[in-house]
């Protein structure tokens, strides 16, 4: 199955901007001076990935994802997939063109998901903070409400999740990056579009 976001998003043009940390696709200056439809972070170093994967008891499906990229902010921050930061690296949001993903390990610590537990927090949705969880044993994916943890959607595996959600979100945006519906529809499980 496909885990490379550049292929799944069908990004055939060169990035609008690239740095040593990320590639930025479809510039959206009307929304923000440094706004991009998609920001895909460069894959982590192999040793950094191995160490993080060991600490988090990361399943193979998630580990494979990180061999292609180190997380992403997709559809103008409608969906953030967390990444892996090198130990000791400070997160700086002062330069909009040189970003880092939200740190997978730190986000799991903040949300009190222990490494010995069943779930890993791997991302969130920008509209309401709906969280994306990866089950360590079954590799199922669940989208759950941020506060109450009620499940709003579930997928059999990460590959299926990526294909389904990228397809669904792609249908909500024009090729130029304009959101065609109310932002509440960017969250899985939202009511059907009339």
Structure description:
The chain has 194 residues and is α+β, with helices and mostly antiparallel strands. The protein has one domain: SMI1/KNR4-like (3-Layer(aba) Sandwich), CATH 3.40.1580.10. The longest helix has 13 residues. A nine-stranded antiparallel sheet has the order 1-2-3-4-5-6-7-8-9.
Topology, element by element:
Layout (H helix, E strand, L loop, with lengths): L4 H4 L8 E2 L3 E6 L8 E7 L3 H11 L3 H9 E6 L4 E3 L22 H7 L8 E7 L5 E5 L5 E4 L6 E5 L2 H13 L24
Antiparallel strand pairs: 1-2, 2-3, 3-4, 4-5, 5-6, 6-7, 7-8, 8-9
Give descriptors for this structure.
SMI1/KNR4-like, 5 helices, 9-stranded antiparallel β-sheet, globular, alpha+beta, 23% helix, 9 strands, 194 residues
State the helical fraction.
Answer: 10-25%
Mean pLDDT: 90
Which runs of at least 5 residues are low in confidence (pLDDT < 50)?
none
Order of helices and strands: HEEEHHEEHEEEEH
Radius of gyration: 16 Å
Work out the number of β strands.
9
Number of helical runs?
Answer: 5
Tell me the number of structural domains: 1
The CATH superfamily turns out to be SMI1/KNR4-like
CATH topology: SMI1/KNR4-like
Strands of the largest sheet, in order across it?
A: 1-2-3-4-5-6-7-8-9
Distance between the termini: 32 Å
Strand proportion: 15-25%
- Major β-sheet, in short? 9 strands, antiparallel
Structural class determined from secondary elements: alpha+beta
Global outline: globular
Which CATH C-level class is it? Answer: Alpha Beta
CATH structural architecture: 3-Layer(aba) Sandwich
